[in-house]
Amino acid sequence: MTASATPSTRPAARTVPADVQAASELLAALASPLRMSIVTLLDEHGSRCVHQLVEALGVPQPLVSQHLRVLRGAGLVTGVRRHREVDYRLVDGHVAHIVRDALAHASHATEPTDTESTA
After folding, report:
1. 11-50 pLDDT, tens per residue?
2. Where are the beta strands (DSSP E) in 16-72?
3. Domain 25-110 in this protein, CATH class
4. Axis crossing angle, helix 61-73 with helix 50-57, rounded to the nearest 10
5. Which of 10, 80, 89, 96 could lock onto 5 through a cystine, CB 3.0 to 4.6 A?
6. Would you kindly state where each structural domain of the chain is located, as residue ranges?
């Protein structure tokens, strides 16, 4: 028998550098508390227009629009014109899943572990 790996024991395929770059750009686009909040609201409600996001987030409209521009530029949200307003929605559920996982991880990181709570 040779030393080469059989199909069942081959190491997993390496990540392509282009995939790593794309993933890095995705995370960079989400690397803002306000953008994560926008993604969370769009996930919860399906779609929201700018004034609804402004009301829910309690921040000025130009700031919300600036962050929506970043999310649109990254291909994470899309806008559909409805009369005078634009309804924004997530392009797909994967983005919301990433944000939910990050929030869950952050909440676990702030909870004391069993060893910390008994010390």
Report:
1. 666 667 888 888 899 999 999 999 999 999 999 999 999 9
2. 48-49
3. mainly alpha
4. 120
5. 10
6. 25-110
